[in-house]
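hey m, so remember when u said the tokens were messed up on ur end? i reran from scratch. heres the input so u can diff it against urs
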Amino acid sequence: MSKADLERATITGADLGGYEVERALAATFASHKTADPAECAPAMQAVGGSSGFAATARIARIISSKEHGPGAHMTLSSHSPGQAKQVLDVLRTAAERCKTFKDVLVDFDYDAVQLRPDPGYGDESVSLRLTQLASFEGEEPVRVPYAVVAVRQGATVAMFTNFNRPNGPNDKEPADVPNAIIKAQLNKLSKPAAAK
């Protein structure tokens, strides 16, 4: 899919009652974020809505609940069919093997990495939870629960991330990506012709 195709197949506020959808920046190049150990990088890149693979086209949206419920950051990336499968394969492998890792660039740690049962979205999907330990000099690290759901539909990869804000109402709970957001986006993605 071209960037124009992705734009047409992306949900708007009109497709999703109770949510606002805003544009966000997204680049097509592969993420160069590195982790220690290096094999964990795909999990960390997914937290940012990206992967170690360049995309033909990539767009991003921030989806916010009007009722102060959970929302999501979403990216849609267009790849070759084989590469789209690889994006999910390496993410699944990283989530299986890595329980803890460090973001080398910003010196944040991640722990409690958990590959969750396959939610069964699209042609294949991967769901994981992890906790970011955001540390600032001389202070106790702040634990931020994250959820990532990656879905391949054909050669398009949809990546959804959400986190619970520190000191927010659910800051100690596991993070989740609302099912309504994922289903609405996959539904629209499966009908790109209708969206033209």
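this time it looks ok to me. The first strand starts at residue 19 and ends at 24. if urs says something different then somethings off w ur setup not the seq
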